[in-house]
Amino acid sequence: MADSEDPRAQRLSGAGRAPGDLAGSPFRADRDRIVSSTFFARLGGVTQVISPGGSGLLVHNRLTHSLKVAQVGRAIAERLLGDAGHRDLLDKLGGCDPDVVEAASLAHDLGHPPFGHLGERVLDRLARERLGLADGFEGNAQSYRIVTSTEIRGEARGETIIGLDLTAAVRAAMLKYPWTRRGYPAPHPSTLSPAPRGATVPAAEPDSGSLKFGAYGTEVRDMRQARAPFEGRIADWQQTAEASIMDTADDIAYAIHDVEDFYRVGVLRQGEVAAELSAWQRHAGELAIESDAALELNARRPGRSIERLRRTLHRKDSWVSDDEAFATAVAHVRRELVDGLLSAPFDGSVEAEHAVSRFSDTWTRGLVDAITVTDRPSVRSGHVLLSPVQWHEVQVLKFVHHRFVLERPDLALHQRGQARLLGTLVEALLAWIDDPDETTRLPRRLHDLVELAEAELDPATPHRSAQARGRAIVDFVASLTDSQAVAMLDALSGRSGQLWTDAFVL
Fold first, then answer.
1. pLDDT confidence tier of residue 496, bands split at 50, 70 and 90
2. Which NCBIfam families match (predicted)?
């Protein structure tokens, strides 16, 4: 079937492959467009979980994370397509192409701002509370905005193409959360009980809309076009099969390489993890009958935190949560991580590097081999998913880094400084953009983003100019690397004496 006849290969511009696209497949051409983007290159300077500068060691950043997700995602897709039963079901769900999965995996984090998930939370709060943007900020929605709006691809038929002009299949595969913050689709998935993963509205902010979402209101038309080839095949709030593979690959890569990083840095210590897991294994029966209040009161005592995880999984994911599978997963993680990888401190030796490599390869292979496809997933699951025991293993691995790294006071100290930096930077940019005497001296990129945001808004939008300026500031800050954000604030605060070299952040 020719590209122009395949609805999955349709681009927003209506154009086919551009002269610069060397790949024969439109989906491989998408992959090439993504890796050639400056937004993809900047991910090498964006924090994954902990800042490389703060750790002093080589740890994963958003670029290396995206490459690993693409590697795992492609492996999953190829494995599933090698099974006739899985292949037939994937075809009924709308198709599965390894190139689509790989391209979406490479693009899924393009919109993540400086300083990782912390930056995402801070920018969302500032966007809603300070800049008056109802949609706020969301990393996945920002990624979608980049490939459809803020990146410049080139020209077709004499007109500038906004965005990367990706195919419908790849854009749909990027949508982990195929809904907006509120309103689309109707009824909104946040009204379902239970709600899909990510669609829940925070109890503390009942009017804020979904916690996670895949596109801002300005990109709804693009989302509709991307999802059109899958209508009648999947629920209107459900991921495509390719998006489900990408999401699962993201979970696998995140769980494994975060453990690698924290082991390398030296903050993931055998004794602490062993005490937590072994205490739960010895006293699981006693802990199971403790009240929630007692568990919270004694949360720092070994075994209590992972018991709280077991209860959380039952509460949120009863469709898959199982006590026997949970116990099996805890035992496996203890054997492979505590008694295996963490048994010797990382010292940078060849032996230590081999240990990390063996751990990563063994876990990745085991999890990829445990992937299956279902035609009737839970509301909180995609069509492509891990088998129950392996799903629990991923939850336990993620628990380890949350409990023993993300809850550390020294990391909190570092992140509070980063949060303050972003807040100060947004305020400084807002003051600059609102200064009538500085209109002609704004950074050209910021000026262009204001024009783009204003053109997207309905002329009748209340406070249209202010809304456009706010969205432009968010787009601008989200496009910076960690070091660019620091350098720009230094310059705006008068702390930098490097007059001409500061232009690199503009």
1. low
2. dGTP_triPase
